[in-house]
Amino acid sequence: MRPSGRKTDEMRPIVIETGVTRHAEGSCLIKCGDTQVLCTASLDERVPPFLKNTGLGWVTAEYGMLPRATHTRMNREAKRGQSGRTQEIQRLIGRALRAGVDRVALGERQIVIDCDVIQADGGTRCASITGGWVALRLAVNKLMKAGDVISDPITDHVAAVSCGIYGGQPVVDLDYPEDSEAGTDSNFVMTGSGRLIEIQASAEGATFGRDDLDTLMNLAEGGIAELVAAQKAAVGG
User: Fold this and answer.
1) Which of 214, 225, 149, 216 is nearest to 182 (CA)?
2) Domain containing 64 — which CATH number?
3) Which GO terms describe its biological process (predicted)?
4) What are phi and psi of 214, to 5 degrees?
5) Structurally, how many domains does the chain consist of?
6) Is 78 within a domain?
């Protein structure tokens, strides 16, 4: 039995609220159970130096957790310096979202996705990717409406979900009690059409077999389908 009472293939409730900030070109608050992440997309007409005069656009991300997003207060990273975990997560978010973007169609501009964890209960990087895509979609919609972008640069939905082996059972969408005790922990990043972008999987307590990985993959596909449906409902298709 999972601590939450969910079935092995049951996702936490997914809620995506859009337009939650006044100034960002795109924004949403994504709630996956008790995990809540504020995602904003900001347009920057400048690109990193290595892309200057290439005609290619760029999508990048920054990630952070508020001091009381967790059970005990953390010092702000602005005070103590950015951790390796934070750097790894924001690079993952950027890679994931770029996989669903035609950078030629985007043009020589940059969109920065900020993901701020308000409350953490497992799966914050996955929620950031899923919500980050919604913020990106809304920002691109504004560019297209203004005529700054002619062809839609977003090629597909991008979403992510965690899976793991908890208590000997493969499960989808781990909350914190499961994540902290899982024998195997994994994150799957996929497109709406079912293509893989990235898989992160590690044996936390015990090794796992190919059959276990296949089972986790099947669970992830079902979870991604639910997340993409929530994205479509949030952005209107």
Assistant:
1) 216
2) 3.30.230.70
3) rRNA 3'-end processing; rRNA catabolic process; tRNA processing
4) -65, -40
5) 1
6) yes
Q: Which domain holds residue 32?
A: 14-235
Phi, psi angle pair for 38, to nearest 5° = -90, 120
Going by pLDDT thresholds of 50, 70 and 90, the confidence category of residue 148 is very high
Residue 70 in marked binding region: no
The tokens for 235 are 């952005």
Does the annotation list 91 as a binding residue?
no
Whether 1 is in a domain gets the answer no
- Six-digit token pair at 209? 């077999």
CB 39 within 8 A of CB 135: yes
Is 109 annotated in a binding site? The answer is no
7 domain residue, yes or no = no
Q: Mean pLDDT across the stretch 111-137?
A: 98
Q: How far apart are CA 29 and CA 19, in angstroms?
A: 8
Q: Is the pTM higher than 0.70?
A: yes
Query: Residue 123, annotated ligand binder?
Result: yes
Asked if residue 159 is part of any domain, the answer here is yes
pLDDT digits (tens, 9 = 90+) for 52-111: 999 999 999 999 999 999 999 999 988 888 899 999 999 999 999 999 999 999 999 999
